[in-house]
Specification:
Blueprint lengths: L46 H11 L6 H10 L11 H9 L5
The structure holds iron/sulfur cluster.
């Protein structure tokens, strides 16, 4: 299911990474033609769309690490830093720190 959330990175993000300034203007997905692909998860038919988003992150995006930490620490849904929320949840269960 495609999320009804607003597009990623087209607006100022309200959350911050503690102690870090992230230059979201450098994000490769800033002008993505289909921002919904960053808001879906890797379930069922959405896997292909999610894979497309992750491929853009792995181009690599110059702020990939910061983006991952942002999604991880703020427990966000969708693709952040080349990972899905499912992958980040698994990392949390295994006690991995960002
Ligand atoms: S790592 Fe991926 S989701 Fe994060 S800013 Fe870059 S392209 Fe966008």
């Amino acid at each position: 299911m495609i999320s009804q959330k607003p597009p990623v990175l087209k607006t100022v993000r309200p959350l911050k990474i503690p102690g870090r300034d992230v230059d979201w203007q450098r994000a490769l997905c800033k002008n993505a033609d289909n921002p919904d692909r960053f808001h879906v998860d890797d379930y069922g038919d959405m896997k292909r769309i999610t894979d497309e988003a992750i491929a853009m992150c792995n181009t690599p995006c110059p702020i990939k690490n910061e983006c991952f930490i942002y999604g991880y620490e703020n427990r966000l849904d969708g693709v952040w830093g080349g990972t899905t929320s499912r992958q980040r949840n698994q990392m949390r269960k295994k006690g991995m720190a960002a």
